[in-house]
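quick one, 324 residues, struct below
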Amino acid sequence: MSVARRAGGTGPIIVQSMQRERNIEVQYGERLTRGAHFIRSALTSGPGLLWMQVFLLIPLLAIVFISFLTRGAYGEFHRPLTLENYARLLGFGPFGFDSLYPAIFLRSLALGAFTTVLCVLIGLPLAFFIANLPPRYKTGGLTLVVIPFWTNLLIRTYAWQILLAPQGWLSRLAATLGLVSTDTPLYPGLFAVGVGMLCDFLPFMVLPLYASMEKIDWNIVEAAMDLGADHRQAFRHAVLPQVRPGLVAGSVLVFLPATGQFVIPDLLGGAKTALLGNAIQQQFGPSRDWPFGSAIVVAALALVIAGLWIQARFAAAKGEPLAP
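---
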């Protein structure tokens, strides 16, 4: 009787011991699994992270640091750290206020805004048209949109120089139709710049818009029409809110790089005005003023970050993803 009681008393102790051993084994197995997952993740993402640190993060930090230095007589760097380059960028130079670089920034922003509006006006109906094509024709429509990317930017720009030249067939056709006078050539000028920028950046607007239009709920549009909305009202209140993510993403993808574009305005606009890209190239090239050029780069990066932040805030406010 006492033996049975003793055995019954040790039974729960044995069960608890077995449970503790099982818990230890489970925890040890989980640790091994987490360790193996960490090692596998490190092996797969480690080279990419190392590449980004060496070729992106370190040069970026160097650019930021150099922007606070000053240029010597022969292009060398001098300390102490100063905000002189940023003050000069805002127009406050050693000889008083100079509007050159503020004007360059404003001109670049105006070019980016002009290109964005142009791409929206052309890209919105084009993306709508492609999204409503029969499925077997959609791939062909998208291929026609991205075909310009198959050739180099310089080749495309030189091609537009030939097509829009005063003796080119497009200029003669426009003069024949009375769209322009014979004394007003299409190239060089604002029209040629607009055509070149549109050709270069239109795909960045069409593709996000197309992705959003593929997800349109047409039941909402039909409900708006049934409630008495005309086509304009249905587009404004039923279609446009649904394609807003693509419109915002496309605008960011067009506006930010367009502000730094200088090849197309130089070649098609007659190289009469300096833009942000020209200023950076000038400071890192002939002028050898790397500190001031670095300050311009940092300001341009701040512009990019501000644009991405606005897009993120807009998407968060609407409860939408950052990109379609």
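The domain at 100-318 is CATH 1.10.3720.10 (MetI-like fold).
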